[in-house]
Amino acid sequence: MADIERELPGLPKGFTGRLPGILALESATWGGSSGTTAEGKWWRELHREIRQYREAKTLMEYVRTTARLITAQAGATLPTPALPEPASVPQPTPGPYVDEALITDLEDKDAVLRVGKLLALVRELNSNYADQHPYACQMLLRAILDHVPPAFGERTFQGVVANVSWERTDKA
Measured between alpha carbons, how far is 118 from 143 in angstroms, rounded to an integer? Predict the structure, then answer.
């Protein structure tokens, strides 16, 4: 943030704090990862596709470039729409990746099963999912899969499945 404020003095107060949300909505910044440090600093990775915007020197040129790229991607020719007044668009908050009821059930079984580490991983997965960190979610899902059998006292998934009493069996 300090870099942007130093390079572009005179920005409205609070603008740089809202900039991560603004960039998340811009197609030119999609595909890269992003994050926020514990100190409140943020970062966003840009891919080489951003070069498609190198000729855009004004907001209108940026909008035209975006419209052209989206139209080309959709395979249709659309008229350039008039720009509406900017409005704040509320972002929907994603629900948890793992349902809270399941987490509560696991907590209740913690005395019987060894699920403490599994619970910590599931909570971290929900947190990263809410913060929209897809790569961290993928790694956490892998770690969760590794911790399911030990939570049930088994070494493999086959061991877990063999010890579950199924209500219905699909022999096919």
Answer: 9
pLDDT in tens, 120-145: 888 899 888 888 888 999 999 998 88
The residue behind tokens 């020719």 is 77
How far out from the chain centre does Cα 21 lie?
A: 13
Q: What is the pLDDT of residues 44-53, one digit of tens each?
A: 777 777 788 8
- Beta carbons of 103 and 91 less than 8 angstroms apart: no
The token pair that represents 96 in the structure block: 């948890």
Q: Do 27 and 66 form a contact (C-beta atoms < 8 A)?
A: yes
Exposure of 119 by Cβ count < 10 A (0-12 exposed, 13-18 middle, 19+ buried)? middle
* Backbone phi, psi, residue 169, to 5°: -120, 135
- Residue 71, pLDDT > 80, answer no
Q: Measure the CA–CA gap between 11 and 46, rounded to whole angstroms.
A: 22
Q: pTM score, two decimals? A: 0.41
